């Protein structure tokens, strides 16, 4: 079924002339003739009385004309409805965020909910590695990961720019430092986030770049448990600066890292072949305009 053929037929009937219909539609008369022949063949019927001197429809053509008007009208109505739905500020956004990251970017999520109260924001709190898999499968619309993120099949939009810092107990020998080189931590005991978080591998690789393999004495999926471990002298940790500044800067000492630094850049990702629905576009626009 070719909708254009129905449009040509309706215009032909309304103009009562192949010449006038062609002029109105800005196409050739032969194009209209071929379309009518195609319709007649497809529906096994004659639409035009070719024995008549003047333009006239057959009885079947009259029925076909009335049905064609309904088909075209229905198509236009459904198209307008579809366009409205796609551009409306309604719908559902499925967003995956690691529990550590959501603590830092929660104000952004609140802003989105405030700006678009008719959009349901469904948040899935899982580790970044699992999150990446779900976005790739299309199970969720978008996810938030931590740089570096190297998959070129994904669009990336940074949410914020910060760094990860060394977390020390108040009585640690390094507390008077504002910054410290990573190589000086080779004899420290480390408490780090669990394997499912991207920053887990980033920390280990950063230590290796500094010339040592970290001595990991504890892992957790909860950043606050790591902080408790540090406060109680179980080891040192490396965590995102925004989280420590917001919740526990009075309990631990933050020290910047050098050689190498560890950037902490939460980044929204979605597959480049993903159709960007209205809730997604509004979220992306909000990030880029903040």
UniProtKB/TrEMBL annotation:
Pfam families: HTH_1, LysR_substrate. Keywords: DNA-binding, Transcription, Transcription regulation. One of its GO terms (cellular component) is cytosol. Residues 1-58 form the HTH lysR-type domain. GO terms for molecular function: DNA binding; DNA-binding transcription factor activity. InterPro entries: HTH-type_LysR_regulators (IPR050950), LysR_HTH_N (IPR000847), LysR_subst-bd (IPR005119), WH-like_DNA-bd_sf (IPR036388), WH_DNA-bd_sf (IPR036390). Belongs to the LysR transcriptional regulatory family. This is DNA-binding transcriptional regulator, LysR family. It comes from Megasphaera paucivorans. The lineage of its organism: Bacteria, Bacillati, Bacillota, Negativicutes, Veillonellales.
């Amino acid at each position: 079924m070719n909708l254009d053929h129905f449009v040509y037929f309706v215009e032909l009937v309304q103009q009562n002339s192949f010449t006038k219909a062609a002029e109105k539609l800005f196409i050739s008369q032969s194009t209209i003739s071929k379309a009518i022949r195609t319709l007649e063949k497809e529906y096994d019927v004659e639409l035009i009385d070719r024995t008549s001197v003047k333009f006239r429809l057959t009885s079947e053509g009259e029925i076909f004309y009335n049905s064609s008007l309904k088909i075209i009208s229905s198509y236009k109505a459904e198209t307008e409805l579809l366009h409205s739905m796609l551009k409306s500020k309604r719908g559902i956004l499925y967003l995956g965020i690691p529990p550590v990251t959501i603590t830092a970017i929660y104000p952004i999520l609140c802003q989105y909910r405030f700006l678009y109260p008719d959009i349901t924001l469904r948040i899935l709190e899982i580790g970044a590695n699992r999150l990446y898999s779900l976005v790739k499968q299309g199970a969720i619309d978008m996810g938030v990961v931590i740089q570096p993120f190297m998959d070129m099949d994904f669009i990336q939009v940074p949410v914020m720019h910060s760094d990860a810092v060394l977390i020390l107990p108040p009585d640690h020998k390094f507390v008077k430092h504002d910054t410290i080189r990573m190589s000086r931590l080779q004899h420290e005991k480390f408490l780090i986030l669990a394997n499912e978080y991207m920053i887990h591998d980033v920390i280990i690789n950063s230590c290796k770049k500094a010339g040592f393999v970290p001595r990991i004495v504890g892992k957790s999926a909860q950043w606050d448990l790591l902080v408790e471990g540090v406060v109680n002298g179980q080891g040192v940790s490396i965590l995102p600066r925004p989280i420590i500044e917001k919740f526990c800067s009075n309990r631990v000492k933050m020290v910047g890292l050098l050689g190498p630094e560890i950037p902490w850049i939460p980044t929204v990702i979605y597959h480049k072949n993903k159709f960007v629905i209205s809730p997604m576009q509004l979220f992306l626009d909000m990030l880029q305009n903040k």
